[in-house]
Structure formats: structure tokens, C-alpha cells
Amino acid sequence: MTIRDRYLSKFPTSHRQYERAKQVFPSGVTHDLRYMEPFPIYIDKQSGCTKWDVDGNELVDYWSGHGSMLLGHSHPCVVKAVQEQVAKSTHAGGCHDLEVEWGELVKKLVPCAERVRFTGSGTEATLMALRLCRMYTGNPKFLKFAGHFHGWHDAVSVASDPPYDSFDVPGVTAGMSANTVVIPPNDLDLLERTLKNDSQIGAVILEPTGGHWGAVPIRGPFLKALRELTAKYGQLLIFDEVITGFRVAPGGAQERYGIKPDLTTLAKILAGGLPGGALAGRADVLSAIEFRPGKPKMRHPGTYNANPLSAAAGVAALKLVATGEPGRLANEAGRQLRNRLNAVFAERNWPWFAYVDFSMFRLIPNYEGPRATQAADDNDGLIPYGGDLNELDGPPANPNFRHSFRQAVLLNGIDMPGLGGWLTAVHTSKDIERTVGAIASAIEMLKAEEIAG
Ligand SMILES: Cc1ncc(COP(=O)(O)O)c(C=O)c1O
User: Fold this and answer.
1) 345 C-alpha to center of ligand 1: Å?
2) Prior bond of 296 cis (ω within 30°)
3) Bridge partners of 51?
4) Co-location of 305 and 191 in the same domain
């Protein structure tokens, strides 16, 4: 039986559900990443790092709630906090105690957080950050790096996915992207020239461990130089820590690398797996949201800002994050998984490579290049292809490969959003061994059908 035939027979209830979903949702899904051929699976329940689909198949999960479940699914402290809150109040229609506690935890953990404003999502947080920067500096433009994702609002949609040399994003007018300046990551000379020569750039935004959560890794020395250059040429620096915040370290990449940005955008782990985002940063920059007689104000409504359920989950989660233990365990699991996969790829002489830092991983098929010695720390693994953007995060050679790969790993008991994923504090050595075996067996299946990436 082919991979596809086996997939059809193992997930029949999901197949039926997808036929219904196609009559409701465009392409049958509610998030682009969830789209897969011939159909995605439907999830029934989850616990820790395990999930069960509607056909009763048990799977090790690497979606981890799109990166939001650092503690694992249904952590008892988060469940208890949300259960108690849901019976008390799900929308305060006003201020409430938990929002203050939640904000104080963000302030305590995130080094640059002098002030905090909760939003509905990470996308809203980056939208707010850029508008506040325009107000503060008076400059209309911002600089972003090719391959860095900051949500889906107009100005940041440019160059977040390949092809990176085009400003032509469907539905985004030239006017909307006119103030977005894009350069490739990790090129300090070009960065300095651009910041120096374009006095209309008021802000720089980036994913601090690299675009698409580290597809093209960025490490400390670049961040340090970036901080120095933005201070020298007068731009505000925004770390988009929607993924790295509370994951890489309790205070995010800024704590881990000891570099303080002016603003930070947060979401995901922030709200313990419930919806929510935040902008945190310098009090003088966030003061433009304040009611100050005679001074311009950025209006900021938002029905679900600091929603009590998200606040309850967020407080419970951040209290655990603050101990440092969940991040440490997840980072350790990430390193173990990457090292074990690379050992198996090398042993079998397969052209595959596993990389990315901290508690995240990505796989490269058709890899040609040096093999890493075992990484001993969370961020000292080899950066493949010298960090080349198009090699690491360019258009895939075979766009259909992702679908076949996902089918093959699902057949072996692993659910990954693509060629990579996020670990949690509860992925054990046993889960990792199971994963390594499953990925190896998925690769054998793909080889048998001569499906190449
Ligand atoms: C780095 C980064 N910024 C912003 C966002 C957008 O966040 P949200 O999906 O909550 O709008 C994401 C989402 O994955 C992200 O990874």
C-alpha cells in the first residue's frame, strides 16, 4: 500500500469530517498551516505531549498549540485556574484583578517590560508596536528582515515568505507596504548602511532567534550589534518574542542573550494556551496609549484585551515559567532530539539534517554539507548552509513533499506542522526515542516510494 492509501485507511473519521469542513471553510481549514493533502486529521483530546485524533490514534505532538503549550497540554494548574474562572466571569466588562497580576508577572519576567498592554493576539501586538514607534520617532518606515514573520497585518506581510525579493503580496497595496524596508538577515554591513542612509526608518523588528522561529538562525553577536546600531542611528528596536518569549528563557531571548530591546511583542505561552497577546516595553514609548491632556493618543480598544480566562491561564502558566524549570526541560529535550536525529541520519548516511536552537527543531531533506558534532548547549549547533536564506527558507524544491512527509510521520504516530516543531517541558527521553524511530521509519517509507523533498 502507498503512504497515501495507508493514510486514507488509518484516518477515516478525519476524512469524513474534512468533507464537511470543505463546505464551510475555504480549503476546509481555519489556519493556513493546518492545510494538508489529502485532508488534515481532527484532534479529539490532548494531555502532556500526547494527542488523540477522532479515530482514536495516539500521537506524539510537536505542534504544541502552535508553540503556545510550553507546559504541555492540559497542565493541571492551568486547567484548575481556567475552570474556576469560567464559572466566575468570562468577560469582566471592566477591569479585573487577574489582569493586574498577569501584567505584573510579565513585568517581572521580561527585562524590557516597564509597561504592558494586553492585546487579542500576536498580530495585534506587532501592529501596535509599529504604530507606537511611528508616533514616538515621527518616522514612517520600519525595517524588517526577509523570512521573519510578525503576524498577518498588511505592513509586515511583505517578505515574510518566499519569494523574498518581491513586495507583491496579494491584497496588500503598494501604499500599505511603502513604509516597509526589507533586508536579508545576518548582514551587519547592509544593516548599518540601511539604517544610516534612510533617516525615515524609525524602528527595526525581528524574531530574535531567526525568521520562522530560527529557520535562518540568529545568535547573540548579531543581536548585540543590532542593539548598538539602532542606538547609534536612532531607531527603536522591537523583539518579536511571540514564539521565543517565556520559551528560550523565562524572560525570552532578551534574557538569554542579555540584550534589552525597546519593545517586545508577546503571545502564545503568555496566555497559557488561551488566546491573547501583549506589547511590553519602555514606559515613554507606551505612554502614547495614555490619556494625557493636550498630547496625541493612540486609541486602543479590543473587546478581548486581558480577557479573564486568558488571564487566569496566563497567570497560572507564567508562575510555573518563572521557576525556569519548564524552559530548561524543553530546551534540553530539543537538544536531545536534534542530536539523536543527526546521529541516526549520520549512521544511515541519509542526506537529512536537524537543527534550530533551544526547544525547537527543523529538518532539512536533501542536505549537503558538513555534519555537526553533538551540540552541547541549547544554541551551539551547526548553522547549515552558512545561514543562507534561500537554502534554508526558500521555496521548497517539491511543494508536495510536505504533505507526503506529514502523512508518513502521522502513520508512524507523530504529529508535526511540517518539517519541524516545538517541544514542551513534558517531552521525555522515551517520547524522543519514539519520535526518532518514527521519523526514520517515515523516511524509509518516502524512500521506498521515491518521494523526495
Ligand atoms: C514571531 C511571531 N510573531 C507574530 C505572530 C502572530 O501571532 P498570532 O498568531 O497570535 O496573531 C506569530 C504567530 O505565529 C509569530 O510566530
Assistant:
1) 31
2) no
3) 46, 59
4) yes
Let me know whether 383 and 248 are in one domain. Answer: no
> Does 112 contact ligand 1 (Cβ within 6 A)?
no
Range of the domain at 348: 3-72+325-448
Test site for ligand 1: of 68, 206, 242, 265, most ligand atoms within 8 A of the Cβ: 242
Does one domain contain both 215 and 344? no
Cα-to-centroid distance, 363 and ligand 1 (Å): 21
User: What's the pLDDT tens digit per position in 110-156?
Assistant: 999 999 999 999 999 999 999 999 999 999 999 999 999 999 999 99
Q: Is the CB of 273 under 6 A from ligand 1?
A: no
The 10s digit of each residue's pLDDT in 154-205 is 999 999 999 998 889 999 999 999 999 999 999 999 999 999 999 999 999 9
State in Å: Cα 242 to ligand 1 middle.
Answer: 6
Q: What is the tally of structural domains in the chain?
A: 2
C-alpha cell at 234: 536612532
Which position has the grid cell 497577546? Answer: 277
Determine whether the shortest distance from the Cβ of 243 to ligand 1 is under 6 A: yes
Position 39 in a domain: yes
Strand partners, 45: 52
CATH code of the domain containing 8: 3.90.1150.10
**Among 119, 121, 123, which is best to mutate for testing ligand 1, by the most ligand atoms less than 8 A from CB?**
123
Contacts of residue 273, defined as CB under 8 A and 6 or more positions apart, other chains included, come to 65, 68, 69, 71, 73, 78, 313, 317
Cross-strand pairs, 216: 211
